[in-house]
Design goal:
6 domains; 658 residues; alpha+beta; elongated; Immunoglobulin-like; six-stranded mixed β-sheet
C-alpha cells in the first residue's frame, strides 16, 4: 500500500488532479487577481484620457494666442570685441589712429534696437579726461537698413523719462547711473539684419596737454530692446565689456630713481654743487651753518621725490622744515636742502645721508669755539709795495681742540715806528680796525692786507679782538695774539732782468718752468707788479724745439715784452714771488736749450743788454749707449785679467809636478 503524501493544490492541478479542494482554492485566487487588475486598467485609461484632452486644449489655446501676435525675432548672437587704445605719451595726439575700437556684431530683429555707449570705470588719480565715443563705420553697407542715432545721456532722476534722439524713451532704458554725461549710439533695424559695426573711443584732444599718464578704463554697455505690439520697446539684455586707453608716461614723468644720478653735497649755501670745507662758530643758533643739498633723479635726469634719512654725530644739529634733531627721515622733493645748525658743541661733525636707492659718502664739517687758542702768522709776500698790498700776512688759527678757527681776525703794527713803514697802530675804535679775510675753500688761512708807507721793515701782529679794550674785556674768551712778523717795504726800481730754468738738467720731454725776474740795482727781487717793456721787441726766443703747456703758455706768450710778476709763491702751481712763470716741455732728444732776450725800454740803458738762460737735456739713449760701452770695456779688462791668472796657475802647477 502506497503511503499518502500531502501535495500542494498547484501541483495536484498540474498533475491533473481535480479534487474539489484544489479546484476551489485555485479558482478563488485566479478570480480575485483578474478582477483587481481589470479594474486598475480601467481607472488608468480614464486618467490618461483626461490628460490628453487637457493637453490638446492647452496646445490649442497656445496656438490661438501665438496666431494673434505678429512674427518677430529678438536680437541674438551678440558679440562685443574691443581693442585697447594707445594714445601716445602725455601731450601727444589722440585721434582715430590710436583710439580704442569697439566692434558689435549681432542678429538684430525687425524693429528691434540696440543701444551702445560707454561709462568710465577707472582713470588715473587726478586725471582730467573727456571720452569721445564715435562712429568709425561711416559707410558700412550692412547699415543700409539700420538707423544709427546719436545718444547723449542727461542727468535726470532714474524714474523719469527723457528724450533719446528726439523720441520719448520709456523708463528703464537709460538712467543717470548708467548713462550720466556719456555719449553713445542707438541702432534700429527695419528688418532682420546681421550687423557688424565698429565704434571709436578716444580722449578729447583738446585736453592733450593736461592728460595724465596711466590707464583709462571704460565699460562698453550694449543694451538690446525688442519691440512688442501695444507694448513698445522692452529691454531684453544688457551686455558689458571693458576697454582701455593707455597713455604712456614721458621719460621725464618716471618716478623710478636712477641711483647713479643722485647726488649729495655740503656747502655754506643752499643748492651746493660740490663739497666745501666748512668751519663754523659752535655757538647755538637757528641760523644754518651749512646745508646738504640732496638731489634724486630719474634716468632722464629729472628731479624726483624720494625719502631721505640723515644723521649727524659729534657737534651740530640737523633741521628740515619745522623739524630738527640728530636723526631725520624726511620726504625729499627731488632737490632738498637739509640744514646743519650749531648747537653749542665745538668739534667735528659727521653727516650721513641715504635714500632707499643710495647711500652717500659721509660729509664732514667743523664747529669751532668762540675764541681761538693759537694764531700762527707767516709772511706770504717777501716784499711789499708802497701802497696797498692785499696778501702779505697769512694766519693759521685753531681753537683749543685744534679745529680750524674761521672767525674774524685783525692785523696791526707792533709800534708807531713800525706803523710809519707799514700797517697801522692798533685801533681804539673797532670800526677802524684792519680786518683779515676769513679762510675759503681755496685759501684755508686768514689773509691780511698791509699798506706800505715807506721803504723799510715793519713788525706786525694779529689778534682776534679789534681793540685792546675789547681784548681786556674778553667778552668772547681770552685774547689770542699771533707771533710777530716782519714785512719789508721796497721802493727800489727795476734795473735788470733775469731769465732762468727751474733746473739745470732735464730728461727728454720733461716739463720745465721758465722764470723771468726783474731785479733792482742790488740784484734783489722786487715787489709784485706789472713791468711794461721789460724786453725789447720779440721777447724771449729759442732755437730749441720746445712744446707748450696748453693755453697758459704758448709760443706767442714767450714773445711778450711786458710781464706781471707774482706776489706769492706756491709749491703747487710753481709760482715764485717776484717772478713771471712760463711752463714748457723740453725737447725729446739730448741738447742744450738756450733762451735769449734783450732788456727793454723800462730798464735803464745799462740794463738794455742781451740776457740768456740755459739748461741741458740728457739723451737717455746716448747715456745708455755710453753705459753699455763702459760695461763692455770693463768686461774686456776682466777677461784679460782672468786669462793672466789662469796662465799663472798653470805655471805653478807645472813647477809643483816637477
Amino acid at each position: 500500500m502506497t503511503p499518502y503524501k500531502q501535495v500542494s493544490p498547484a501541483i495536484r492541478i498540474l498533475r491533473g488532479e481535480r479534487d474539489v479542494s484544489a479546484r476551489a482554492t485555485h479558482l478563488e485566487a485566479a478570480t480575485r487577481k483578474f478582477l483587481v487588475t481589470t479594474n486598475e486598467r480601467k481607472q488608468m485609461s480614464t486618467k490618461t484620457n483626461f490628460k490628453r484632452i487637457a493637453l490638446v486644449a492647452v496646445a490649442a489655446l497656445g496656438l490661438g494666442v501665438l496666431s494673434s501676435v505678429p512674427s518677430t525675432a529678438a536680437t541674438s548672437g551678440l558679440a562685443i570685441t574691443v581693442t585697447n587704445g594707445t594714445s601716445g605719451a602725455v601731450g601727444a595726439k589722440s585721434d582715430s589712429t590710436n583710439a580704442a575700437t569697439i566692434n558689435v556684431a549681432a542678429l538684430l530683429g525687425t524693429n528691434d534696437s540696440m543701444l551702445v555707449y560707454v561709462v568710465a570705470k577707472s582713470i588715473p588719480t587726478g586725471a582730467v579726461a573727456t571720452p569721445v565715443f564715435y562712429n568709425l563705420d561711416s559707410s558700412t553697407p550692412t547699415l543700409t537698413t539700420q538707423l544709427v542715432e546719436s545718444v547723449t545721456g542727461v542727468a535726470v532722476a532714474s524714474a523719469s523719462a527723457f528724450v533719446l534722439a528726439g523720441k520719448a524713451v520709456p523708463n528703464g532704458w537709460i538712467t543717470k547711473d548708467t548713462m550720466l554725461a556719456t555719449t553713445g549710439v542707438r541702432i534700429t533695424s527695419s528688418a532682420d539684419a546681421n550687423i557688424n559695426h565698429t565704434f571709436g573711443l578716444q580722449l578729447d584732444s583738446g585736453l592733450s596737454t593736461t592728460r595724465s599718464s596711466g590707464t583709462y578704463t571704460y565699460t562698453v554697455v550694449v543694451k538690446t530692446f525688442e519691440t512688442l505690439p501695444n507694448v513698445g520697446a522692452v529691454a531684453t539684455t544688457t551686455t558689458t565689456k571693458d576697454v582701455s586707453i593707455v597713455i604712456a608716461a614721458l621719460a621725464s614723468e618716471s618716478v623710478t630713481i636712477a641711483p647713479g644720478s643722485s647726488t649729495a653735497f655740503i656747502g655754506t649755501a643752499t643748492a651746493a654743487t660740490s663739497d666745501a670745507v666748512i668751519s663754523a662758530l659752535a655757538t647755538a643758533s637757528t641760523t644754518p651753518a651749512a646745508y646738504v643739498r640732496v638731489v634724486t633723479k630719474n634716468a632722464n635726469g629729472d628731479a624726483k621725490a624720494e625719502s631721505i634719512t640723515a644723521t649727524i654725530s659729534g657737534a651740530g644739529l640737523l633741521s628740515f622744515g619745522s623739524i630738527s634733531g640728530a636723526s631725520l627721515t624726511v620726504a625729499g622733493t627731488g632737490s632738498s636742502d637739509i640744514s646743519i645748525l650749531p648747537n653749542g658743541v665745538a668739534g667735528a661733525a659727521t653727516i650721513t645721508i641715504s635714500t632707499p636707492t643710495r647711500s652717500f659718502a659721509a660729509k664732514t664739517m667743523n664747529f669751532y669755539s668762540e675764541a681761538p687758542k693759537t694764531l700762527v702768522a707767516t709772511v706770504s709776500a717777501p716784499l711789499a709795495n708802497v701802497g696797498t698790498n692785499t696778501d702779505v700776512v697769512r694766519v693759521t688759527a685753531t681753537d683749543s681742540a685744534g679745529i680750524s678757527w674761521n672767525g674774524q681776525l685783525y692785523i696791526y703794527a707792533s709800534s708807531a715806528t713800525d706803523a710809519a713803514i707799514a700797517g697801522a697802530v692798533r685801533a681804539t675804535v673797532a670800526a677802524s680796525a684792519i680786518t683779515c679775510a676769513v679762510p675759503t675753500a681755496t685759501q684755508p688761512a686768514h689773509v691780511c692786507p698791509v699798506t706800505g708807507a715807506a721803504a723799510g721793515t715793519a713788525k706786525l701782529k694779529v689778534s682776534n679782538y679789534a681793540t685792546a679794550a675789547l681784548a681786556t674785556a674778553a667778552a668772547s674768551g681770552a685774547e689770542a695774539t699771533s707771533n710777530e712778523v716782519s714785512v719789508v717795504v721796497s721802493q727800489a726800481t727795476v734795473a735788470t732782468v733775469k731769465i732762468e730754468f727751474d733746473k739745470t738738467s732735464y730728461a727728454p720731454g720733461e716739463r720745465a718752468r721758465i722764470y723771468v725776474t726783474p731785479l733792482d740795482s742790488a740784484g734783489k727781487a722786487l715787489p709784485a707788479g706789472t713791468y711794461a717793456n721789460l724786453f725789447a721787441s720779440g721777447g724771449i726766443s729759442t732755437a730749441s724745439a720746445l712744446t707748450f703747456a696748453g693755453s697758459t703758455t704758448t709760443a706767442d706768450s714767450l714773445t711778450a715784452v711786458s710781464i706781471t710778476t707774482s706776489a706769492t709763491s706756491s709749491s703747487t702751481s710753481g709760482a715764485r714771488a717776484g717772478s713771471m712763470q712760463y711752463t714748457v716741455y723740453m725737447p725729446v732728444s739730448g741738447a742744450t736749450v738756450t733762451l735769449s732776450a734783450t732788456g727793454g725800454t723800462s730798464l735803464p740803458i745799462a740794463g738794455r743788454v742781451a740776457v740768456t738762460g740755459s739748461a741741458s737735456v740728457t739723451d737717455s739713449g746716448a747715456a745708455a749707449l755710453a753705459a753699455v760701452t763702459a760695461l763692455a770695456t770693463t768686461v774686456a779688462s776682466l777677461k784679460t785679467l782672468i786669462t793672466t791668472l789662469t796662465n799663472l796657475v798653470l805655471k805653478i802647477q807645472k813647477k809643483v809636478k816637477a
